[in-house]
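Re: [ENG-882] Designed sequences occasionally contain unexpected residues at chain ends

Forwarding the minimal case from QA. Structure tokens:
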């Protein structure tokens, strides 16, 4: 690739580079796009967290709650806990924290021989 193409790619993805400070409206718009694009809660939250690491988690939680109706029963603190679990524990940590929240939807059915 030539330098001009490299510069164009950097301009398009500059918001992902370390140290980039996005305007709140710009970050909120991107978070909305990610939340809508990923139907799976885990994937949506992971994408937002991975691409907006410069934002405090409590701000990310508030933004994500705005665009994810499946997080309606959860408090902002619950969502911060999910983000922390997602970052530190991957999918299994995320699922474990999700199961422990008081307002978490209960699984119906399942296998009687599998303990959760």
């Amino acid at each position: 690739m030539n330098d001009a193409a490299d510069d164009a790619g950097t301009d398009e993805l500059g918001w992902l580079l370390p140290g980039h400070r996005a305007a709140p409206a710009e970050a909120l718009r991107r978070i909305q796009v990610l939340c809508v694009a990923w139907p799976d809660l885990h994937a949506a939250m992971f994408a937002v967290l991975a691409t907006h690491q410069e934002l405090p988690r409590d701000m990310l939680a508030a933004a994500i709650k705005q665009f994810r109706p499946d997080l309606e029963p959860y408090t902002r603190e619950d969502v911060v806990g999910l983000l922390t679990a997602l970052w530190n524990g991957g999918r299994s940590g995320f699922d474990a924290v999700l199961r422990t929240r008081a307002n978490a939807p209960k699984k119906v059915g399942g296998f009687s021989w599998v303990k959760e």
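QA comment: On inspection the terminal residues look reasonable. The longest helix spans residues 76-100. Proposing we downgrade this to a documentation issue.
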